[in-house]
Structure formats: C-alpha cells, structure tokens
Write the structure tokens for this entry.
Amino acid sequence: MKKVSLLIPVYNEEESLDSLHAALLPLIDNELPELPAEYEWEVILINDGSRDRSLEIIRRINAGDPRFRYVSLSRNFGKENAMLAGFDKAEGDCMVIMDADLQHPVATIPLMLREWEDGWEDVYGRRLSRGKESIFRRAFTKTYYSLLNKATRVEVLPDVGDFRLLDRKAIDAIRSMREQQRYTKGLYCWAGFRKKPVDFVTADRMAGATKMSAGRLINLALEGITSYTTAPLRIASVLGFLVSTASIAYMIYIICKTLIFGDPIQGFPTLICAILFLGGCQLLALGIIGEYIGKIYVESKHRPPYIIAEESK
Ligand code: UDP
Ligand code: MG
C-alpha cells in the first residue's frame, strides 16, 4: 500500500487543532469516496514554537493516534523553515502540505491524489477565491507577482500557495535545497517536475487570526525577489550607467557654456538637484547590494535551518 504524508505547520493554533484532527479522520481512515485507492497515512504536525497550548494538544492527539506524528521546534523559525522540518521527516511516497487553520479543504486532497496517480509529480492547489482578505493585501499580492514574474525566468503563480501534493522525487529535490532564508514557493517552481493545478475555494480561517502579519508578508516578498533573482543588481548597474552618461553629457554642456558665456555665479538649483539625485541613486544601489550581501552573510554561517526540541517516536 502506498503511503501518503500530510505536512501541517502549526503556530499558535490551539483553537483550530481539534477541528483539524476531526476533519482529517475520515480522510486518513480511507473513508472519503473520492479517494482513488486505500492508503497508509501519516500526519506530521510541525509545532513552530507556538506560545499557546498547541503543543499540549498535539501531544494528546499523538498519544491517542500514532498516525499523528509531531516535531516541535525550539522556537518560531517561520513557516518556510517549519515546512522544511516536515520535508525531512516525511516517509510517504507523496506528501500533501496544508495549513492548520482549515483554510485548505480536506475534500480537495482526494482530487490531488487522483492527479498524482495519473503521474503528475507536483499537484498544486489553485485558489478560486481568496476568502476574507483585506483589499490592501489583495492589491499588494497582485502587483507583487506581476513584478516577480517580470524579473525572473521561472514563473511563480499568484493564486497558488503551499497547499499542494508533491511526489517523492519532488520532496527529495526540495529537501536538498538547504538555504536558511527560504522562499518555498519559488523552490517548487525552480525544482521543475510535471505540474498540474487542482482548483479549490479558500475557506475562512477556522479560528484565531492570521499569523502572517503585514511585516512578515513584506519580508517574505523581499525574500522571494532576492532569493530568486539578481535582477535588482542589474537594475542598479543600468541605472548607474544611465545616470553617469547623462551626467557626462551635462558636464560637456556646462563646460562649453562656461567657456562661451563666462561664469557668473548661478546654477545653485541645478547643483543641488544633481547632488540629491545622485545621492539617492547611490543609496538605492547600496541598499540593493546590501540586501544580497546580508543574504550571503547569513548563509555563510551554515546554521541549520531549524532546531528540534522534541519529537514523537
Ligand atoms: N505558520 C507557522 N509558522 C509561522 C506562521 C505561520 O507554522 O511562523 C503556520 C500556521 O500555523 C498555519 C500556516 O502556517 O498553519 C499558515 O498561516 P496563516 O493561516 O496564519 O497564514 P495565511 O493563511 O493568512 O496566509
Ligand atoms: Mg491561513
């Protein structure tokens, strides 16, 4: 019998965990009629340093049903790194990644398994509606993906999140990428494999508030750009080239003008504009370079991407 792993990162989800457990039971008891076959199941809950009662609840679920395994990280490492811990622990022939807040419908998983049985290696969930979300976040997401896709050669799809099924080959590929600052969505695309979408409708969050604050999302967004493309460095060089060409032309103009008309003390506005503009360009370029150097610095320490504090047997 083939084995399917379910990977669920958990961060302060005490209100959702029991309903999640209940919602998963019909699936892992092989009772859903849409399932293409009977499977052996394992659920891997990654406790990402929750500060509420999540770990207690997870331990209780595990004690009652050993198909629910868990790994508890020593602190909050962020969803991307928590997922990597799950990638490392999964034993299944394929793995489905889903959120703990039941925004990813359990009923979609059998449909994903069907595609997998048909030979697709990366079956990704595609959101038909984005559930309750602020207009700001929606607009931000839209602009962001159009920018990211212009800057990179590998396409990252906007309405696709981490709800997906990966074949063993894809799991091993993602596992082999050990960077600390992870942008898993980009990694799926980079890794390749035969991809197939399955549509689903995002439910509203079961309980509690989103753990992805605006700050975290912006960080992740920057991560996506800098870990995925060096195009901004190119932009800085192109900008530098254009500005210096323009400056040389302007310089020639000024010299000629001075030679012909003499040099009355004038031109303070031009001067200050030029200084401020160039200063701005330099800071921008430095900032961009700094982003990349910061990344090199963090990666060069070769720290493990996560640390395990406790684990189920
Ligand atoms: N999560 C996590 N670590 C974090 C933040 C979130 O493991 O630092 C988990 C969280 O418990 C949930 C999933 O990642 O299972 C998605 O988080 P959330 O629902 O808050 O994000 P959203 O759906 O709003 O993007
Ligand atoms: Mg959510």
Q: What stands out?
A: The chain has a mean pLDDT of 88.
